[in-house]
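R.M. (postdoc): so does anyone remember the format we settled on? I'll just put the structure tokens first.
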């Protein structure tokens, strides 16, 4: 029924069409490719994916929303080794394609990618120094920061239940996101030894993550 509604609204083919809903539990570590502070810290979060699957489509479209707790490096030309706990919220749209099915279609491999936007929002009131908690506070001038991101993924699924109208599965997804964090506006300031310093995120980061997948197709 949902597949039929989507076909009527956006013109997607309805023949043998199904909707996939997936919950992902994510863990990863961003690698900073610019800035004085290029340290990376572990991330933890979750992701919800919605996919339209039809055998008549070469690529299958998807929509995903995620929320992650991250510790991102912030820097100034004169100081380094500082990081800020943030909430990372993202919305992405993309396409996937099945590339391999084995054991009577009970196992699937797929690849894909997409584009999206992410919001970074400060989490807490103090900064990290060399990865450790500190009492060093900061002032926030712009509370929410929006940035573009690009992602690529490869996914393996194995079906645990297959019915005539619905099925359930589990698996793993390897996800790599590129975050463009370049920003010339003054978002944060901190004080060291009575001197005020402006802080910004690093310009560019690569964020690989591994995700446990639980999903349903109906």
């Amino acid at each position: 029924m949902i597949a039929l509604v989507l076909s009527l609204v956006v013109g997607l083919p309805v023949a043998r069409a199904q909707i996939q809903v997936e919950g992902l539990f994510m863990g990863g570590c961003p690698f900073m490719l610019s800035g004085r502070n290029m340290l990376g810290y572990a991330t933890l979060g979750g992701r919800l994916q919605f996919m339209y699957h039809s055998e008549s489509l070469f690529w299958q479209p998807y929509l995903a929303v995620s929320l992650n707790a991250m510790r991102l490096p912030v820097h100034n030309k004169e100081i380094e080794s500082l990081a800020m706990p943030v909430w990372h919220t993202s919305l992405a749209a993309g396409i996937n394609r099945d590339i391999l099915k084995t054991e009577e279609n009970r196992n699937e491999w797929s690849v894909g990618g997409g584009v999206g936007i992410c919001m970074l929002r400060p989490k807490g009131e103090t900064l990290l120094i060399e990865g450790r908690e500190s009492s060093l506070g900061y002032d926030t001038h712009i509370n929410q920061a929006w940035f573009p991101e690009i992602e690529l993924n490869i996914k393996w699924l194995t079906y645990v239940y297959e019915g005539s109208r619905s099925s359930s599965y589990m698996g793993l997804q390897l996800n790599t996101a590129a975050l463009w964090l370049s920003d010339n506006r003054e978002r944060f300031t901190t004080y060291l030894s009575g001197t005020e310093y402006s802080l910004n995120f690093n310009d560019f980061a690569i964020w690989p993550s591994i995700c446990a997948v639980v999903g349903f197709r109906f």
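R.M.: ...and that's the designed sequence above, right after the tokens. Also worth knowing: The helical segments are 2-10. The first strand starts at residue 17 and ends at 28.
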